[in-house]
Structures are given as structure tokens and as C-alpha cells.
Amino acid sequence: MAKAISFMEFRRRAQAVFDQVPDEYRRGVDELVVERQAVPDPELEDVYTLGECATGEHDPDPESARTLRSFVVLYYGSFVALSRLDDAWDWDEEIWETITHEIRHHRETAAGEDALEDVDYADDQSFLRREGKPFDPHFYRSGEPAGPAAWEVARELFVERRLTDAEFAALSDVRVAWEGGEVRISRPAELGDVHFVEVDGAEVDGVPVTVVLVRKRGAWETLRGLFSPREPKVLESRADALPLPVDG
Questions:
Q1: What gap in Å lies between CA 68 and CA 59, rounded to an integer?
Q2: Which tens digit of pLDDT belongs to each residue from 140-149?
Q3: Residue 82, CB half-sphere, CA atoms under 13 Å: how many?
Q4: Sheet holding 51-58, edge to edge
Q5: What is the DSSP letter of 244?
Q6: What is the pTM of this model?
Q7: I need a surface site. Which of 56, 123, 138, 195 has the fewest CB within 10 A?
Q8: What are phi and psi of 164, to 5 degrees?
């Protein structure tokens, strides 16, 4: 369990972080509010809302255009609850991450974008996967793009490779490349529809790599699936990173 800090100390640190954010980045975000309570997820155990961006429109100047204004709320009790579950909990890092995350919510709302909502969705689905609960097998595609067919979600890099049954059967090992990296693993015994392979010994700047093998379907099979849909077969396994062959 990480060392606790008092509510007053938490509020002081949070305000210091908020004040350090450049004005041009938090334009339209009027203030930081710190609440004492914890906000647990109503369905998921050990999941808490750390903060939120409260956004609404008002007109501070009758002669000006309507301006989208927000304020950031942090929930001290949620931070305390999660700190008790994580020996490596870093109060300052979590405060910084939460404040900047919520300010980004404001910026994207003001710009009419929803990219961060996609990222939040991916994070939630990743948690469900880790908990062994039903999840969207293509959730990672809503994460932060990390190059063609690569996305980062909750500090995990997902790299996708699409294969037909015949292509999969012809392989003895699988190589997957992305911008700035490549990994090679032994071919799993089964392809499934979506197969998550967590790769031991493969990291990018400390972020673990998961290869996602996706079964490609032919045109007739796709058409047939529209009329008789079925649940996709989702598999999960682990594999060691194999040495890459020396080209040339």
C-alpha cells in the first residue's frame, strides 16, 4: 500500500500541477475543484473515477461569442482508494495524468472531437479483458494510434496482423512489424477470430507488446455472416519473443 497523503496536501499538490499547465493549453478551463469523496464504478470492483471535466456553455461577456467553459474536478477519495491497491502508486504522477487528461477532454469537446472518448472506451474494455469479463474484441482500435495496425491502450501496445486460415496454416512462426519495431513469435495452435498473444521479452520504451491475430474472412463468408451472425471466437495466450532472422 502506498503512503497516504492528507486531503489538504493533495489539494495543494493538485493546485500546483493545475497552475503549471500552460495558459494556452488550459484556455477555457476556469478552475480546479477537489472533492473529498470517492466515486466507485457502480459495476466494476476496484475501479474508481479519479476526475472529470465539467463542461457547459455560458456567455461571460454579452458582446462576445458564446464560449465553452469548463472546470476540472478531482476526487480525493478515489485516489486514496486506488493508492491502497498499488504499492507503486505515485501521487504526483497520477495527479498530473488526471488533470491533463481532463483538460484534454475540454479541448476536444471545444473542437468537436471525440478521440479521447474513444481512448476512455478502449481503457474500459481493456480492464474488462484483464478481469476475465466480456469485452469488445476490437477495443484496441479505439486506442492511441502508434502506426499502421498498432495502437496503445492502458500502457500496452497492440499490434494487429490479419490472416486467412490458409495463410495462418502455412506459417511456422509469425512476424509482426510496426513503426520502429518488429516481433517474431511461434505460431499459436489456433487462430480463432481474434487471438491476443501477449509477448514475453518484447517491450517498447517499457510498454509490453501484445500481438493480435485477426482472421480474415472471404466475401461469401462475410455475406453469410450478415444473415446468421455468431459470437466471434476470442482466444488469449502467451508466447516468447523469438530472435529475428538476419536479412541479407
A1: 8
A2: 988 888 887 8
A3: 20
A4: 29-35, 67-75, 51-58
A5: P
A6: 0.57
A7: 56
A8: -80, 170
